[in-house]
Amino acid sequence: MASPSPSPSSPAPAPAPTPTPAVGPGSGLRRSLGVVDGVAIAASSTAATTSIAIGMGTIATIVGLQGPALLLLAFLPVLGIATAYARLNRSEPNCGNGYTWVGKTLGPWPGFLTGWVTIVGSVIFCAYTSAVMGSVTLVFANKAGLHTLGGVALDPASTGVSTAVGLVLLLGLTALAVTGTRATTRFQFALLVFEYAVLIGFCGWALVTGGQSFSLSWFNPFEIADGTTFAQGMVLAVFFFWGWDAAFSVTEETRKPGDAARGGLIALFAMLGLFLFASIAFQREMSLAELIENGPQALPYLGQKLAAEPWATLPLVALMFSAAASVQSTLIPTARGLLAMGRDRTMGPVWTRVHPRYGTPAAGTVVVLSIAAAIALLAVALPRLSDMLLAAVNAIGLLVALYYGLTALACAVRFRSALREGPRTAVLAVGVPGVSGLVLLGLGGYLGYSYLTMSDHFELSPDNGWFMFSLPAVIVLVGLVMAAIAKYVRRSPYFATGRGTDAEAIDLPMDRTPV
Description:
Strand content: under 5%
Number of strands: 2
Radius of gyration: 22 Å
Distance between the termini: 33 Å
Helix content: 55-70%
Mean pLDDT: 80
């Protein structure tokens, strides 16, 4: 693929015969991925098994048995967002995706904020999913008869112990992500095949043998009690689908930019089928009380109900594989998003360092690991793992609604000329993305207002509205501070032009400003 002409914010390629391999994607990231690899990355990042395992009980806690209805409703705006991503990616393939597209169309401040909340949400996800991996590992240890180690109780429900074990596993996954995207996708394929076989097998058996009567009311969203409950459930359902856009972060490592869009869309439709299938199966096998009681342990509980050992352990193994694959695939787009911001000097130069052998942003990946580990350790303030998971999911859900919404609006604004090209083109290019973006931003805004009004004091608890609002609010405020530093301290050209550096830039100016 020929390199596009440099944008006004991108310097001309350096005349040196051997460009430095650590300054931009054009010089290091290798085009070796295809559609199937994009599907693997998107499916792994969406983490269907993890979402099902920890989400089915959680969504039942919020909306009762209307989980299938919300999953189906949430898919509609998410599909609109995916349409926006695909169109924007065809117009401008860039590993910065939303950060670049929103910055160019709506302005550098909302563009930077889009990139910032995307990255912070991903880092939080890595932090709390590492605790999930640790918890599952401890369950295996308990099954093997190991309940204490060095005087420490190996309690799978303990946030502190689960986090410590999970961080060790996170270190190994980071090493694998550094060694190359191709090797990562091959590893993820093996994990996906196993976990989906287990998930489909157990959910299929529950669907056939479950003792709870199937009801069409499960698909009726009007049976949800009130608007706040509906908004919270919708944001959580959107979180179920979150991750398919990881395929768009490797467009510069994909042989054809269109392959990234196809991979993301294929994974998105596959996830819808899995989520609906599992949701109905869970509700066929478990009563509402059982779903609420088991919460994030609903999948292991399903395994215990349906099979004897050692077969009952298979859902735990699938959950472990899913959590590992999702953390690893989340590290990929996070490091590449920071690479895009680093090459624009909105972030420090460490993020632009591409490994000369593996062709990956290795330094950025390691720094992301360090930040995720620090956040995971801070989360130990919530002593119960289930409380930590609920707090993280709610915070990430609001961040996802924000950056998906802004990206969709950027698509509607950028291609507004399509309004003159006929009804079909106008609807696909402007109408669907615009409405989807407004829906998600409206849901996020309404839910944020509900959090502010549901409590009269602050408390470190996922049931406290002020606490739940403070997490995403602090992230956004810190993002605005970082944007100001990029504009006034780093003097990033991104804030002068609103344009990100060309995806194929070879040589980028290095900034001496510290990370």
